[in-house]
Amino acid sequence: MADNQSTPHADLFDLSGKYALVTGGTSGIGMMMARGLLQAGARVVVSSRKADACAEAQHLLSEFGDVQAIPADLSRHDECRRLADLVKAGSERLDILVNNAGAMWREPLETFPDEAWDAVIDLNLKSPFWLVQALLPALRRAGTADDPARIINIGSIAAVHVAESPNYSYAGSKAALHQLTRVLARELGPQHVTVNAVAPGPFPSRMMASTLDALGDTIAAKAPLRRLGRDDDMAGIAVFLASRAGSYLTGTIVPVDGGIATTASGT
Ligand SMILES: NC(=O)c1ccc[n+]([C@@H]2O[C@H](COP(=O)([O-])OP(=O)(O)OC[C@H]3O[C@@H](n4cnc5c(N)ncnc54)[C@H](OP(=O)(O)O)[C@@H]3O)[C@@H](O)[C@H]2O)c1
């Protein structure tokens, strides 16, 4: 199809024949995105540390399509390379990489430990970089000028506005990931790979469970759209960014937050 022709609506979001990796796809936002990609027709690999979580996720997600789960501790460089090798064993072309696995550490300024920097930066910032490095040949093989390969980094609105909780290394890691997204987008665009980030607002997940149990109603009541995020919001943005519909975006940070950070007044 020539570039200036329009695509039938249904095909705009079709991911049939695409191969995707979603890190941290066994839970929360990663699982919401993996489900969306599967329903749009992609073959998906999900990954996280725990073998039992992987087995459970593969079981749950298999209802929606062809999914495989591979355990790996992505806070370690060698584990990122091992996962990349296993993903490449499934296909020499990777169409979609979702760097979603992440960790948060909340502790007051006075007692915030070294470990809270190392653990969070390793997983939230270095690991997406290591995976891009290891998977770049496969992404380059998949991308074309008309239909680039996609890297989707999961940032946070904690790097867009200032959250009330003490999350120094988390906010710093996500701000750095947003900028890394732009840096990589500029370099990889000419190689037919787009790089975008999603900055979620509050979504129910293991990471957010205690916050939302205590404050979920208050947060929802203050949000311009008067609710928390839900599964379809994340499935939708993943499919958009991964499909033909999203093929002309790169270097963007897309807030999916019900207006919480995007309309913050500062007072
Ligand atoms: N939920 C929100 O409101 C929200 C808002 C903004 C941004 N985010 C971002 O969204 C992403 C997903 O978070 P979530 O809220 O969905 O949390 P979650 O439910 O706790 O999911 C985190 C996922 O990452 C995996 N993971 C954790 N450490 C890992 C490691 N060392 N190696 C590999 N996988 C690891 C976890 O599985 P295992 O424990 O089995 O490893 C799990 O699958 C994170 O990057 C987070 O910062 C979330």
Can you walk me through this structure?
There is one protein chain. With 267 residues, the chain is an alpha/beta fold. Helix content is 44%, strand content 14%. It has a 7-stranded parallel sheet, with helices on both faces. Strand 4 (96-99), helix 5 and strand 5 (149-154) form a beta-alpha-beta unit. The longest helix is centred in the middle third of the chain and has 29 residues, at 114-142. The N and C termini lie far apart (51 Å). The model has no long low-confidence stretch (mean pLDDT 96).
What is the fold's blueprint, element by element?
Layout: H1 9-12, E1 19-23, H2 28-39, E2 43-48, H3 51-61, E3 67-71, H4 77-90, E4 96-99, H5 114-142, E5 149-154, H6 168-188, E6 193-200, H7 209-222, H8 231-242, E7 253-256
Parallel strand pairs: 1-2, 1-4, 2-3, 4-5, 5-6, 6-7
The protein binds NADP nicotinamide-adenine-dinucleotide phosphate.
Please, how many domains? Answer: 1
Task: Estimate percent helicity.
Answer: 40-55%
Radius of gyration: 18 Å
Structural class: alpha/beta
Q: Count of DSSP helices?
A: 8
Which fold does the CATH topology refer to? Answer: Rossmann fold
Unreliable stretches, pLDDT < 50, 5 or more residues?
none
Strand order of the largest sheet: 3-2-1-4-5-6-7
Order of helices and strands: HEHEHEHEHEHEHHE
Q: Between the first and last Cα atoms, what is the distance in angstroms? A: 51 Å
Oligomeric state of shown chains: single chain
- Under the CATH scheme, which architecture would be assigned? 3-Layer(aba) Sandwich
Task: Please tell me the overall pLDDT.
Answer: 96
Largest sheet: 7 strands, parallel
Q: How many β-strands, per DSSP?
A: 7
What percent strand?
Answer: 5-15%
* Bound heterogens, unique: NADP nicotinamide-adenine-dinucleotide phosphate
* CATH class category label: Alpha Beta
Taken from the alpha-carbon principal axes, the silhouette is globular
